[in-house]
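From the shared-data thread, chain only:
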Amino acid sequence: MIAKKKNGKNLTSITEKVMPALLFLIAAVSILTTIGIVYTLLIETIEFFKRVPIMDFFTGTVLKPLSQNPEFGVLPLINGTIISSIIAMLVAGPIGIMTAVFLSEYASERVRRTLKPMLEILAGIPTIVYGFFAFTFVTPLIREFFPSVEATNILSPGLVMGVMIIPMIASLSEDAMTSVPNAMREGALALGSTKLEVTFRVVIPAALSGIIASFVLGISRAIGETMIVTIASGSSKNFTFDITQSMQTMTAYIVEVSGGEAPAGSTIYYSLYAVAMTLFVFTLIMNLLARYVSRKFREEY
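Structure, as tokens:
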């Protein structure tokens, strides 16, 4: 028995020493993966800018990578990405925040338990399904009222992306509102405020940091969306602000180029990495902004 106890203590001692190192290695995998991705993007992007002037890339309004005289202006892609994201947020923002207000302030516990999982089903639908829905249903429906809308356009994928983002904004905003102490609601009601006044003058301002963070994350999600815009918006690299026309986003361009349009080692091949780096910087800025907003406007209760 003494020998068994000694062996058990030795095993415990070895486990206590090995586990921290093992956990550190597991945690380091994500960091090393991020470093590897950034390193790859950076090396290939530098190779691209050895062939194309950086100013031509960031200020050019013409993108013709397969032309005999190729041009690599990225502004048409940035323009398409921003416009589709704005359309998506115009849909997801108001609907998401109003849904969160209903779930947090007006719905009974039973209704909330029923509606919230149903709402989150939207987040589980594959984006390629959303893309076909935008192309085969939303676009024909819009063209019934506005025949001038092109078969592929930036409007319908923007609208459908907004539907896709609603659960993210509604869920995060509802969590932020629910975390507001009931004492604040009861205090406002005791002073004679109506339910609506309590919601819009007490609860929403108190949960503002979480609500704004959900909006910023929603924008980041819209910027990074790929399949919906690839299917429903087409591949026209137009630099225009007309939402009825076809446009291409940065993610859709990456799909097009990586799908075999460019041989490895060509300039168009390296342009894939330059666009990917631009997209990476965009999403990084949005995530940093979300963290800043959360800390800046966070309320301590």
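The first strand starts at residue 63 and ends at 64.
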